[in-house]
Predict the structure.
Amino acid sequence: MRITEELRKPGVKRMILDTDTYNEIDDQFALSLAMLAPDRIDLAAVTAAPFHNDRSESFGDGMEKSYREIGICAELVSRSHGAKIPPYYRGASERMPDEHTPVPSEAADKIAQLVNAYDGITFVTAIGAVTNVASALLLHPEIKEKIGVIWLGGNAKWSNGAEFNMLGDRNASNALLSSGVPLLLFPCGGVVSHLILSIYELEHFLRGNSPLGDYLCDNVADCKPRGAVAWSRVSWDISTVAGVIAPDTFSASLCPAMRLEADNSYSFCEDGVPFEHVNYVNRDYIFSVLFSRLAK
């Protein structure tokens, strides 16, 4: 299965969103966009991905904070636009100890349960470390034939894998890359890195529009560097959800199977299962999709 071909077919796509929502300010945009596109996305569930940085005390604490943030954001989308709140679940609290040992969690089990209960293809869109997704595939290998994974992770294939999501759980990243599951990779550096959001655009389109709009504006405004006059903020995670809604917002090509090495370089294997590597995203088109949905 080629995910890009499936996305270009008309109709609603069944999707599970795996998100480290509290880690940054752009996951909230991605979640809101997914909830506000019922003509293209049947959002079956949202799962909380773990993370660890200066916004969390541990990998598991990042997951718990993301779980709470999913609820806050989804409630605002519902209150502002009348959208249905999807079920959401806690994910893993620890990293995978090696590439073959999954971390059981509510998220991993729910991903498998929802995939197995559906006759068609379920797209699992991951915008964080892929501990939940890789664990679901290891715990329930039968789902591999019924899912397509869309992942924001790593950097462009001519660069390296020193990127937050891919390094968040190195073992899970390699487990996913070697699984043979249909994969569409949105690399950060060199591809989606020009998805930069200006606070002035955001204020123009969303400020005063709804409680959700004000919340998103406030989140971005809180990131303003002290003393900055002209500034902007990266908003990479929306590329994946926008790609499901409007597949012509990106272009992709086949890439040989790869893995992340200890020095964060990529190695490629012509004998492995190739995956789809996004080479270009249309920044203006993606933000048009975002604002047209959120500003209604």
Remarks:
- The mean pLDDT is 95.
- Residues 3-197+235-288 form a domain with the Inosine-uridine Nucleoside N-ribohydrolase; Chain A fold (CATH 3.90.245.10).
- The chain has eleven helices and twelve strands.
